């Protein structure tokens, strides 16, 4: 068997990619296994994962090398580089740079984008397992995962990314763990003022709403439901946030990052007064000055809300809107 030369990736990985959109669019080395005494990773190390080397710079092309064809019938995962940052735990959000290779040929099939911000991946049990392979690693680590495409990516991700793979094909995935965010706001609870919708949280942090028996408010209201102890959010920052949004007194949300794959969004925290397509000034002002780890409820009447043509899809024109933001972190430049 010989080691295949790697070719330039044919397409960029499209699953849960981190992008700097704004709300108006709404859209050290180690060759051994994880430290099982401190955490339980999803997959064990093994003979297949030990065959892979990846000596490229962290965050850039990992330049993975392994003997081909590589045959896999179970998933194995192993740290090639051990970072010195925070440990990623179940329920967190990991920012990871992903590169995927064919086990048969060694060809690089796809990447989340070398040198770019990584994918935001919830560390929960779901396919593709981009978040779960980071579980128990530390920020700054490089993890190699070997298995079949179906086991690691799942059929939906294979189809979405138009990868030339069947579910039984062996793949090698190299994951660089860039950042760790909490999965939900972790600040200290604060008593909200009267007259706002009551917010009840599910175990994963997703808000549920109970509205008071009152007409739609006509004044802007802002309540910090949890007070975080992290960095202060400044104008121009890119915030990583979970958000729920619904019309006043509605039964369903028109946007909810908690649902589906549970991936938070990133928002450019700038006002439309200064940047075209920025946030409505009242919304921007309500978020700027908050701290990371905070949960913020914003009641946004239409006269200080979205201008014509910028209303979020599913929201009702002329209605007061209610948002709850969990400020998980600030994306580093």
Task: Write up what this structure looks like.
This protein has 333 residues and is mainly beta. The protein has two domains: 2-181, Chitinase A, domain 3 (Roll), CATH 3.10.50.40; 188-330, Roll (Chitinase A, domain 3). It is 5% helix and 31% strand. It contains three helices and 20 strands. It has helices spanning 149-152, 155-160, 281-287; strands spanning 2-3, 11-12, 53-54, 64-65, 67-68, 76-81, 93-102, 108-111, 119-122, 142-148, 170-181, 188-189, 198-201, 207-210, 221-227, 238-247, 255-256, 265-268, 295-300, 321-330. The strands form five sheets. Strands 2, 6, 7, 8, 9, 10 and 11 form a seven-stranded mixed β-sheet that branches. Strands 12, 15, 16, 17, 18, 19 and 20 form a seven-stranded antiparallel β-sheet that branches. Strands 1-5 form a two-stranded antiparallel sheet. Strand 16 and strand 17 (255-256) form a beta hairpin. The longest helix has 7 residues, at 281-287. The radius of gyration is 22 Å and the shape is elongated. 47% of the residues are buried. Mean pLDDT is 89; it is low at 1-11 and 15-36.
